[in-house]
Amino acid sequence: MTSTTAFFIIMNTNNISRTWVELNQTALINNVKNLKKLALHNELGLVVKSNAYGHGIVAVSQVLETLPEVDWLFTVGFKEACMLRSHGITKKILALGYHDLELSEAIRNHVHIPLIHSDRALADEINRQAQALMQKAFIHLKIETGLGRLGFTEQEVVSFAQYIKERCPHIELYGIYTHLSDPNREDLTYTYHQLDTFNRVINNLKEHNIHIPCPHALASGGLSIPFPDKPEYNYALVRAGGNMYGFWKSDLQKQRFHAIDPSIELELVLTWKTKILHIAHHPPHNYIGYSRTYTTKRDSLIAVLPIGYDDGYPRALSSHAHALVNGVLAPVAGLVSMNLMAIDVTEVPNVTMGMEVALMGPHEGITPDELAYKAGTINNELVTGINPLIERRMIPQPSVCVHDYDKPSIARI
Asked: Residues 98, 290, 297, 407: which is the catalytic one?
């Protein structure tokens, strides 16, 4: 093996960010406006859990706070919700999943609380905490209709709701919700079964004089479901997650969106960037990276990027993906390591040290869908895996939809 000859000396990076995520504010706002078209007169809630699907929960929520189309934000737990309150977010917030802070903190911050099983002791404690704070605690009951995870069974709901009404005067039964298992397929039989179960629960509560004002069941996957002559599936609130960030659940979902309104388009919001740390010439037959998995086949120019799987760039993309450099897709060369990775920039014109590199974004060849397919995962997992310590920058810019979703693709569920 011939030793590598350095092409440039490593640059001084004191004032240069190693990596950052840019968020297209215009795309985000346009996606929200399109989702509101589907929500019609119902309230629109947007899911910002898990660091806003990796986009940056504070940056995204601060934009959503300004939009009249948005009524609710959904977090995974109390911690995210109370953190948003500390950053000035005043929209209604429901924690969808679990209680990861003291109940008093959630009640004090007017966070709506999910109840996912029949626990009267928990209801009593929520009531006691709300009384101590001289506030109301707002509760949403989660109903298990066929996802097989969390929620009240159909048989448990009425007696528990009656207990709340009779014994917990500081609790308001504000919402009732369920989660659809499989709405992104042609056959909607199972989805209709879930929604019929959910409606049966709501009607049973009404028969016992228990009226819960905010039912919700339709999330991103359910927004596009055709409901001809089924007004009973029209709920007060709709939830949207991945669609807000520009992700289609599937090609079928896009077709259904367009059947409702052909003008609806989604634009990817996120672009993940870094800068070239080092460039070197390599003759043919030189190894690049650990385990000698990549060998140069010609005189090559190899750039090293200060990015690795610690940052959330999947090791599974080793030698299987590309990065965008000066308008050219440069292949990943060798194994992605913990803090570094290499790309072949031989074909990149005028490549220089410190040049910007797009690792992921709305560009053919590096979209989350394409990279997720190559990594054997889904777009949601890929973007939520971006290290939350990496800076997120909200960038106002013209709205340009540059990804061609009409090309054949796998389901992105």
From this structure: 290
Widest CA span in the chain? 82
Q: What is the DSSP string of 113-154?
A: EEE-S--HHHHHHHHHHHHHHTSPEEEEEEB-SSSSSSSB-T
- CA proximity to 337, closest of 309, 372, 375: 309
| pLDDT value for 229 | 59
DSSP 313-327: --GGGTTT-EEEETT
Question: Which domains does the chain possess?
Answer: 5-19+269-395 (2.40.37.10), 25-250 (3.20.20.10)
Decide which of 259 and 62 is more confident: 62
Residue showing tokens 């990496």:
390
Nearest to 412 by CA among 144, 395, 403: 403
Tokens of 216: 């919700």
Structural tokens at position 28? 């985000």
Ordered strands of the 356-360 beta sheet = 328-331, 322-325, 356-360, 270-275, 19-24, 391-395
Residues 268/246, Cβ–Cβ less than 8 Å = yes
Per-residue pLDDT tens over the stretch 167-200:
999 999 999 999 999 888 889 899 999 999 999 9
Please give the span between the terminal C-alpha atoms of the chain, in angstroms, as a whole number.
Answer: 46
Q: Is 98 a catalytic residue?
A: no
HSE of 40 in the Cβ direction (CA atoms, 13 Å)?
8
- Respond yes or no: is residue 165 known to be catalytic: no
User: Catalytic pick from 49, 92, 142, 254?
Assistant: 49
Res. 246 pLDDT band, cuts 50 70 90: very high
C-alpha closest to that of 28 among 401, 408, 299: 401
pTM as predicted: 0.89
Q: Which amino acid, residue 397?
A: Q
What confidence tens digit (pLDDT) does each residue in 198-217 have? 999 999 999 999 999 999 99
